[in-house]
Amino acid sequence: MARLAKCMFCGSDLEPGTGLMYVLNNGTIMWFCSRKCFKNYNMKRDPRKLKWTLKYGSKTR
Ligand SMILES: [Zn+2]
């Protein structure tokens, strides 16, 4: 059974079989819906400040 993942950056749902999986040295698995999200995550951008993410405007944390 495939588990649904969410993009670590923009917060959108990923269909099974889509997106980019990134595994950290400590074994944590991170999912990204696109290279764009992966790039922005690596640049330590705040998704709450980017209009194209689902987290835009979110006030949680
Ligand atoms: Zn994304």
From TrEMBL:
<dbReference type="GO" id="GO:1990904">
    <property type="term" value="C:ribonucleoprotein complex"/>
</dbReference>
<dbReference type="InterPro" id="IPR055345">
    <property type="entry name" value="Ribosomal_eL24-rel_arc"/>
</dbReference>
<feature type="zinc finger region" description="C4-type">
    <location>
        <begin position="7"/>
        <end position="37"/>
    </location>
</feature>
<dbReference type="GO" id="GO:0006412">
    <property type="term" value="P:translation"/>
</dbReference>
<dbReference type="Pfam" id="PF01246">
    <property type="entry name" value="Ribosomal_L24e"/>
</dbReference>
<feature type="binding site">
    <location>
        <position position="7"/>
    </location>
    <ligand>
        <name>Zn(2+)</name>
    </ligand>
</feature>
<keyword id="KW-0694">RNA-binding</keyword>
<comment type="subunit">
    <text>Part of the 50S ribosomal subunit. Forms a cluster with proteins L3 and L14.</text>
</comment>
<feature type="binding site">
    <location>
        <position position="33"/>
    </location>
    <ligand>
        <name>Zn(2+)</name>
    </ligand>
</feature>
<dbReference type="GO" id="GO:0008270">
    <property type="term" value="F:zinc ion binding"/>
</dbReference>
<comment type="similarity">
    <text>Belongs to the eukaryotic ribosomal protein eL24 family.</text>
</comment>
<dbReference type="InterPro" id="IPR011017">
    <property type="entry name" value="TRASH_dom"/>
</dbReference>
<keyword id="KW-0687">Ribonucleoprotein</keyword>
<dbReference type="GO" id="GO:0019843">
    <property type="term" value="F:rRNA binding"/>
</dbReference>
<feature type="binding site">
    <location>
        <position position="10"/>
    </location>
    <ligand>
        <name>Zn(2+)</name>
    </ligand>
</feature>
<feature type="domain" description="TRASH">
    <location>
        <begin position="7"/>
        <end position="45"/>
    </location>
</feature>
<keyword id="KW-0862">Zinc</keyword>
<keyword id="KW-0479">Metal-binding</keyword>
<dbReference type="GO" id="GO:0005840">
    <property type="term" value="C:ribosome"/>
</dbReference>
<dbReference type="InterPro" id="IPR056366">
    <property type="entry name" value="Ribosomal_eL24"/>
</dbReference>
<keyword id="KW-0699">rRNA-binding</keyword>
<dbReference type="InterPro" id="IPR038630">
    <property type="entry name" value="L24e/L24_sf"/>
</dbReference>
<keyword id="KW-0689">Ribosomal protein</keyword>
<comment type="function">
    <text>Binds to the 23S rRNA.</text>
</comment>
<protein>
    <recommendedName>
        <fullName>Large ribosomal subunit protein eL24</fullName>
    </recommendedName>
</protein>
<feature type="binding site">
    <location>
        <position position="37"/>
    </location>
    <ligand>
        <name>Zn(2+)</name>
    </ligand>
</feature>
<keyword id="KW-0863">Zinc-finger</keyword>
<dbReference type="InterPro" id="IPR000988">
    <property type="entry name" value="Ribosomal_eL24-rel_N"/>
</dbReference>
<dbReference type="GO" id="GO:0003735">
    <property type="term" value="F:structural constituent of ribosome"/>
</dbReference>
